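Title: Prediction job returns without error message
Component: structure pipeline
Severity: low
Priority: P3
Assignee: unassigned

Description:
Job completed but the reporter wants confirmation the result is attached to the right record. Sequence as submitted:
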Amino acid sequence: MSTQDPVLPEDSDTPAPLSTGAILLAAIGLGALLGVLSPAAAKQLSQTIDITLLLMIFLIFFELRFDAVMQAYGNVKFLAIAWSANFLIIPLVALAIASLFLSSQPLLFVGLMIYFLAPCTDWFLGFTRLAKGDTELGAALIPINMVSQLLLLPLWLWLLTKDVGREALDAIPSMLLQWFIIPFVASQAVRLAIERFTSRRWANLALSMVTPLMQMVLAVLIVQIFAANITTLVATPAIFAMVAAAVCLFFAATLIIGEGLSWLGQLAFPQRTLLAMTMAARNAPLMLAFTALTIPNQPLVLAVIVSAMLVEIPLLTALKRMIQHRNTQGE
């Protein structure tokens, strides 16, 4: 948060008492165990993933001030770098990596490309927040990334499959409404009410609770995702192995490219952190829904996206820890 924020507690940057990495890794283990031992409970959990995602987005937006986000749009240099990275450079990287691993298997190739081509519009900001990145600038990226990927995905699908239904275009307004407009308006309304009708002490307390709540919600989301999808991973070990290798290579490539862009753009640490997260994190949950709608009856395509998502979460956790370590070293 900006130091100009009038209700942000001065000690808001105090590290959480529990290791976020340990919490997230425990969530992965718990979710996988639950999915294997109790498929019925896992199915019930999967039905509430959207609710948890929306709660996380609400918390992210709640912490941000509308005026600060609007000021972030003045940072044309960073927004141009991030957009170019996500929508010009990464598609080329994605094509190279997907071709290297899955060029002989068209359906798996399509699934991996869909995963690579969509930058995250929700949990990347949670990881950015935990790694002390620039979340206000990150919030300004959300609508840019959302609109850009939803407008480009019909084109990508046409190029990859030579066929895309009208549903791809019809889904865009509802996705924008559900994943951006509603949580943003609701969070700002709640924040405004707290600031107007409670004391400064209570407003500070509400903001100080965001980080631990974010840890909890992210952990719950990871439990849900792994519980709901672990059987797919177990049933397709060969697919998972190839996808895991491809996603690891993708993370390494985006990290190297992001570091180069940060150096060229002379980005400060918070922006450097944000760029690393937005380039690495992908929009797997939304792409699962979008792909099921536009390419129905293709479980292998969905299996690739699920496998990639399961690999991504530990990699994002490792990336967050690496950035935190680099920050403590004063780099």
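Comment from assignee: result matches the submitted record. Residues 150 and 224 are 25 Å apart (CA to CA).
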